[in-house]
Each structure stands twice: as C-alpha cells, then as structure tokens.
C-alpha cells in the first residue's frame, strides 16, 4: 500500500526576510529589503494579494522571491464599483488629493475620495493646482470653502513652469508630507506626475527601471509605485521616519460600494458633527422630522454649517449605495 506523500514543510518565520512592496503589476511585484535591495516577488496563493505599501515576509525562490506572509495592515485605501475592487495602497499616513482649477474639478469625485479616506481613518490633504490662473483659481478656491470649514487642509499650489509664481506653494505642501507615507491621488491632468518629478528628480529613471524589472513596458503607467523623497528627510532619518510618495493611476470614476449607506454620514465631517442630535436613531438625514443634519443645511430660508451642494452629494451617494444592495 502506497503511503500518501508528505506535504512540503511550510517555511518558518525565522527563515523569512522582511520587505516592503514598492510596485505591483499583475501577479508580480517589486519588494524592497530594509537594506534597499529590490527584487521581483510572486505572492503565494490567490488569497495573498499585495498592494504597494504592504509589509511582507518573503523567501528566495530561484532568481526571484516568493511572498509567504502578508503582515497586518494599518489601513487599505481602495474603491469598489459593481464589477471590481481597485486597491491603491496600504499603511498610509496621508492621502493627497490633487485637483486643478482648470479644467473644473468634479466635486463629486473629490467627495468620494474624501469619504474613502475617512472610512479608513487616513488624514486627507487637498491641493488645488494652477494658482497662477487668477480667475479660475479664485472660483475653484471659493468652491472649496466648505472643505476648509470642515477642518481639511486645503493647499494652493502652482506646478506650471510656464507661469511661475513667487510662492508656488510646494514648500508649504511638503511640510505636511515630511516623514510620512502619502498616496498622491487625482484625476488625469491634475499634475500628479509633475509633482512627483519635482520632488523625486530620479522618478522617471526609477519608473523605467521598474518597468524593465517587471517586464511590463508601457503598462506600468497604470500601476502604483512607491518613491522615497530624500529632499524631505532629515539627516540620518530612520527607515520608518523617511518621506515616501505613492503615485497612483488617474481615475474617472470612484465607486464606494464597500461603504454601507448608514455609515456614509459618519464619513462626511460636516454631517457627522450633527448626526447625534437627530430625533430618530435610524435617521437617513434626507427627509425625517427632527433631523439635526437637515436643520444645518443652507437654503433660502435658513443659514447653516452644511452647504446645499454637500448635502446634495450626500443624498446622491446614499441613493447609489442603497440601490446596490437590493
């Protein structure tokens, strides 16, 4: 009688090496060791999906590496629509949402990204590009007044080399990023690549090296990548205290299907400030009598702390998130 074959022994924790995922594409990724060496790794098993910013344990497998364990995450920033989930990055300190004064940014998309950050308890920063365009910038800046009133950091910047301004705002923005890990998020054309290339002079070279290593060519333009920002680091900064930027692909849609509609108001600071005062515990903040949120919505009959635009966005999102569950 043939004896069943013994399963290969699983690697022990002491046999594994720690690493940081700095780029992903398809089923392979690039892992950086604490000494700064980078190598291609493949996650073991379908459930072991990794994203940029993940801390992992890996071992050598031929000329490459095999990821054996995904360490616990502090957070995971992602979006989800009816078809799929798109994970951006993990273990973030900040999400920098970069928008431009011209062409006009989508307030719905901005609000969705902010909700996703709030849901994961990640501090967002809003940067409004093209401060050199006086009239469009003034109009865009005024539209952001509710977000400043909520306590969000809203930074004016100018990334245009053709129309430089005396103070382009980049240095002030950098003060909010130093020593932290920040995902740079925004629609195509908002200036993400310009900002990355300005703060990381070798970014284009590094991108080419990653493309070559992963053999992914032009497709890495739609992947997510980690960059160290040495200019913002203090001398002899420890590895954990270094400044990092994560460049993400541009997006046209930002689904929030992973968020329950009843949780939505708690992810919008202007609404969250008043939800405890509603008459009904299950108030939707849309039509109920005694709603403390509705009592704060500005209109022609009353002043309030919630702009009518923001409440309209909330109502649209609530309906969208409610419909998907039927």
What does this structure look like?
A six-stranded mixed β-sheet has the order 10-9-8-11-13-12, with helices on both faces. It has helices at 107-119, 134-143, 145-149, 170-175, 192-199, 203-214, 269-272, 308-323; strands at 17-25, 28-32, 38-43, 55-61, 64-70, 76-80, 85-90, 94-100, 123-129, 153-156, 181-185, 225-228, 244-247. The protein contains eight helices and 13 strands. With 326 residues, it is an alpha/beta fold. The protein is globular, with a radius of gyration of 22 Å. The chain has three domains: 14-70, Beta Barrel (OB fold (Dihydrolipoamide Acetyltransferase, E2P)); 76-247, 3-Layer(aba) Sandwich (Rossmann fold); 261-323, Ribonucleotide Reductase Protein R1, domain 1, CATH 1.10.40. A hairpin with a 5-residue loop joins strand 2 and strand 3 (38-43).
Short structural summary:
The protein is built from eight helices and 13 strands. With 326 residues, the chain is α/β, with parallel strands linked by helices. The radius of gyration is 22 Å and the shape is globular.
Q: Looking at this structure, what is the CATH superfamily of the largest domain?
A: P-loop containing nucleotide triphosphate hydrolases
Helix-strand string: EEEEEEEEHEHHEHEHHEEHH
Oligomer classification? single chain
Class of secondary structure makeup: alpha/beta
Features:
single chain, 326 residues, alpha/beta, OB fold (Dihydrolipoamide Acetyltransferase, E2P), Rossmann fold, Ribonucleotide Reductase Protein R1, domain 1, 3 domains, six-stranded mixed sheet, five-stranded mixed beta barrel, globular
């Amino acid at each position: 009688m043939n004896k069943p074959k013994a399963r290969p022994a699983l690697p022990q924790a002491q046999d594994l090496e720690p690493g940081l995922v700095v780029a992903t594409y398809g089923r392979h990724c690039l892992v950086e060791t604490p000494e700064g060496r980078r190598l291609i790794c493949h996650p073991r098993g379908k459930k072991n999906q990794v994203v940029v910013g993940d801390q992992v344990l890996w071992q050598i497998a031929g000329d490459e590496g095999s990821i054996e364990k995904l360490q616990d995450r502090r957070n995971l920033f992602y979006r989800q629509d009816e078809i799929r989930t798109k994970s951006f990055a993990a273990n973030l300190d900040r999400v920098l949402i970069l928008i431009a004064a011209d062409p006009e940014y989508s307030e719905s998309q901005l609000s969705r990204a902010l909700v996703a950050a709030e849901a994961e308890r990640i501090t967002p920063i809003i940067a409004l590009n093209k401060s050199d365009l006086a009239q469009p910038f003034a109009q865009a800046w005024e539209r952001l007044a509710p977000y400043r009133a909520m306590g969000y950091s809203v930074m004016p910047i100018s990334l245009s080399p053709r129309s430089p301004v005396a103070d382009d705002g980049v240095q002030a923005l950098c003060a909010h990023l130093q020593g932290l890990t920040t995902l740079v998020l925004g629609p195509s054309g908002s200036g993400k690549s310009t900002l990355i290339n300005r703060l990381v002079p070798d970014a284009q070279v590094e991108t080419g090296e990653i493309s070559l290593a992963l053999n992914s060519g032009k497709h890495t333009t739609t992947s997510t990548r980690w960059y160290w920002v040495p200019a913002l680091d203090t001398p002899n900064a420890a590895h954990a205290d270094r400044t990092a930027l994560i460049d993400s692909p541009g997006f046209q849609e930002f689904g929030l299907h992973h968020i329950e509609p009843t949780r939505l108001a708690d992810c919008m600071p202007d609404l969250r400030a008043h939800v405890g005062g509603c008459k009904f515990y299950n108030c939707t903040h849309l039509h109920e009598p005694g709603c403390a949120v509705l009592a704060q919505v500005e209109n022609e009959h009353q002043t309030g702390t919630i702009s009518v635009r923001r409440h309209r966005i909330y109502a649209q999102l609530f309906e969208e998130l409610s419909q998907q569950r039927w």
